[in-house]
Amino acid sequence: MPPQTSVEIFDALHELLHIFRARMRQRLETACPDLSFGELRVLMHVGQHPGCTQKTLVEHSHIDKAQMARTLAQLEDKGWLVRAESASDRRMRELRLSQRGQRLFKRLGAQRATLAAELLKDCPAPLQAQLLAWLARARDGAARHASH
Fold this sequence. Notes:
Layout: H1 3-31, H2 37-48, E1 52-53, H3 54-61, H4 65-77, E2 81-85, E3 93-97, H5 99-119, H6 125-146
Antiparallel strand pairs: 1-3, 2-3
Helix pairs in contact: 1-5, 3-4
């Protein structure tokens, strides 16, 4: 495969992700205008990874620790998020969505799935499955090589 093809693959992935994120951002802001996009991203991550910690959120999002602490406090104050002492380490606090947060997470997850289906409607399901397998293979290979 010519080197330019590899670059074009990443350019296409970048453009597709940009379209997905921009449209998802519009839907998120419409669905819940009282939450910032950053707050919504945190809620989505906590919904996908119940029991995660502030530390793992900082690592995932690359947001400053102090800013993340403020965001989590705001989400907890607004009733979207619950912080609880970890059963395995009393110094750690696990993050979970409140019942209100869980309802929003389900609604936004459905919107996310709908948008993804809309953007890939011209790509038949078997090709989507094949693309996913290829991307997972490339990701796993990149992860292996990154650790050496």
